[in-house]
Amino acid sequence: MNHDFEIYDGVLNKYHGSDQNVVIPGDVTKIGSSAFEDCRTMLSVEIPEGVTTIGRFAFFGCQRLADVKLPESLTTIEEKAFRDCSALEDIAFPDGITHVAGDAFEGCHYLEEITIFGEVFSIEEMMEEYDSGEIAEDFDIDEDEICNLTEAVHDVAVSELVQLLINGKSENLYMPEDLRDELKQNL
Prior knowledge:
The protein is of the alpha/beta class.
């Protein structure tokens, strides 16, 4: 039995270890709120198949965390789950993901690539290439309803992209369900 992990009924409640490369045990189905909060030694984490939810603040403040392997079973990433993971440069979401909180990656200022439905999106290119008018035209969205991504801060751009493509809507963006489904099919 590994005493670094506090697990109850499939929920990883707390990590007490100091490993740089963490492999979460296979019997975990949910990573609980604040489970790895402020774990400053962790460089990478491998989340096993079977995990469906990453809870609020789960990896909050893991400033050296640069590599996250998400399982295909993952469907939900809750509020501020990866907030201030400042070393994180890229993340690949599994195809079955259905909800990511808008602020899940807040403060991840070096996050430059997001893979959604097998398509890689460069945040930097997106911010350089598009303005609100082009995005509104591309997705047939009223320009008044869209955030001007070219002037937005980095974490807002990340949040908006995730919200648009995974959740189908956000505070400032909205994509009709049929358009979202069409986008998924074309990627």
